């Protein structure tokens, strides 16, 4: 059972291969694409013992050339930093990379975002391949070419648009993923329903538990629908000059929450996005754009799945509304000093809005604790 979703971007187009066994078949997919060009695999120290051996075996059996052993980074969000970017570039340049070198990112969104950025800026641009091993990375971060790192000022503030040449989303690799990370990735799956696909949201209300339990059919469908939704938006607006901002639903709030906890393990990106999407619905309801019932329905689904819906569920954090508003003011969607919000007229009816009264935003943050 494998699906292929095409990201249509003229000369930068690529396939996303989705389904169980995609890592075992990686050599057969990659060799025809890159020929004799050397690859460097980059992964993290949690994924390496679990999935690196099967990728290495697949590449070897297809005769793919390697430039040295895999580079193994520490797992976790703090790796998306200048320090780890520098160490990675140092190692790559030390190996004498050439412009023909292809990077392979094997791991979650942290490895994918960092390696994609390293590919974008090394020798002014290397090709790279995404092999996402978290649900979040399979449905979101490996697709669309947003790459980058966090800085002390905020989330993803240094980066570039650099599309991968191929994405291999092996759903069987998710069998080893801890449940907390499955749920965090699931938040980005729900996002696609909330943006513009009520039918998909209703399907998730019925089948979300099966998706999160790793049922192959449900999982492949959820990943495929998510990737198709993202591919359609990215194909229309690669560099976020318009419609792509919808993919940021829940993120204006969510990124501020992540910054407030200092990107540590108390709050994962997907958990922050789930909380942020709840707040985006609360703000929409406060502004009379949708009914309070819609906001309740979204929260009820997150609760049923096991995602957080209240800031108080994040342990060990003192939330401060003024501080959160300060983080939100650094959002990349700010224009002329005004934050662009993604709001909703209902489930599946998201849109972007400016000139939102900050007192209303503060009221939503106060109520979310
Ligand atoms: N570029 C984009 O468009 C985009 C989209 C969404 C999120 N992101 C970014 O992605 C990052 C979050 O990604 P993530 O949730 O994948 O986090 P992550 O990369 O930190 O992975 C989560 C954890 O799971 C481990 N792991 C990965 N695969 C595993 C597997 N198969 N089995 C067991 N453990 C495994 C990792 O080692 C890590 O500890 C954030 O930095 C976020 O900003 C980027
Ligand atoms: O691909 C996009 O566009 C997204 O916004 C997807 C988000 O889920 C993702 O977290 C992204 O990294 C956020 O982008 P940013 O530009 O707000 O940093
Ligand atoms: Zn996200």
TrEMBL record:
Residues that bind NAD(+): 109-113, 133-134, 146, 155
Comment on bound cofactor: Binds 1 divalent metal cation per subunit. Can use either Co(2+) or Zn(2+).
EC number(s) per entry: 4.2.3.4
Known pathway: Metabolic intermediate biosynthesis; chorismate biosynthesis; chorismate from D-erythrose 4-phosphate and phosphoenolpyruvate: step 2/7
InterPro entries: Dehydroquinate_synthase (IPR050071), DHQ_synth_AroB (IPR016037), DHQ_synth_fam (IPR030963), DHQS/DOIS_N (IPR030960), DHQS_C (IPR056179)
The 3-dehydroquinate synthase C-terminal domain, residue ranges: 185-334
The reaction(s) this protein catalyses: 7-phospho-2-dehydro-3-deoxy-D-arabino-heptonate = 3-dehydroquinate + phosphate
SUPFAM superfamilies (alphabetical): Dehydroquinate synthase-like
PANTHER family in the cross-refs: 3-DEHYDROQUINATE SYNTHASE (PTHR43622), 3-DEHYDROQUINATE SYNTHASE, CHLOROPLASTIC (PTHR43622:SF7)
Name of this chain's protein: 3-dehydroquinate synthase
Lineage: Bacteria, Pseudomonadati, Pseudomonadota, Alphaproteobacteria, Rhodospirillales
Gene that encodes it: aroB
């Amino acid at each position: 059972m494998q699906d292929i979703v095409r990201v249509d971007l003229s000369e930068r187009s690529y396939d996303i291969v989705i389904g169980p066994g995609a890592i075992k078949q990686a050599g057969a997919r990659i060799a025809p694409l890159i020929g004799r060009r050397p690859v460097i695999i980059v992964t993290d120290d949690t994924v390496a013992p679990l999935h690196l051996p099967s990728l290495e075996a697949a590449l070897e059996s297809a005769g793919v050339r390697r430039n040295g052993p895999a580079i193994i980074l520490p797992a976790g969000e703090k790796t998306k930093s200048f320090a780890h970017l520098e160490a990675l570039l140092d190692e790559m340049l030390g190996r004498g990379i050439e412009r023909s070198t292809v990077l392979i990112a094997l791991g979650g969104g942290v490895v994918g975002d960092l390696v994609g950025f390293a590919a974008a800026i090394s020798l002014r641009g290397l090709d790279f391949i995404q092999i996402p091993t978290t649900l979040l990375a399979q449905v979101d971060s490996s697709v669309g070419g947003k790459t980058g790192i966090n800085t002390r000022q905020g989330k993803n503030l240094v980066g570039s648009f650099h599309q991968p040449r191929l994405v291999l989303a092996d759903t069987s690799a998710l069998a080893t993923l801890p449940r907390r990370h499955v749920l965090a990735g699931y938040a980005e799956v729900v996002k696609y329903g909330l943006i513009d696909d009520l039918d998909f949201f209703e399907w998730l209300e019925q089948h979300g538990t099966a998706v999160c339990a790793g049922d192959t059919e449900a999982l492949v469908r959820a990943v495929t629908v998510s990737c198709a939704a993202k591919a359609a938006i990215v194909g229309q607006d690669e560099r976020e000059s318009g419609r792509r901002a919808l993919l940021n639903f829940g993120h204006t709030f969510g990124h501020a929450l992540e910054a407030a906890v200092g990107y540590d393990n108390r709050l994962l990106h997907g958990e922050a996005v789930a909380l942020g999407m709840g707040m985006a619905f609360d703000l929409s309801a406060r502004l009379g754009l949708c009914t309070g019932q819609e906001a309740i329905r979204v929260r009820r689904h997150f609760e049923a799945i096991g995602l957080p819906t209240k800031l108080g569920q994040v342990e060990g954090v003192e939330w401060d509304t003024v501080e959160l508003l300060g983080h939100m003011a650094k959002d990349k969607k700010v224009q002329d000093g005004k934050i662009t919000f993604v709001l909703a007229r209902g489930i599946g009816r998201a849109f972007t809005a400016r000139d939102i009264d900050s007192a209303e935003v503060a009221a939503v943050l106060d109520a979310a604790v």
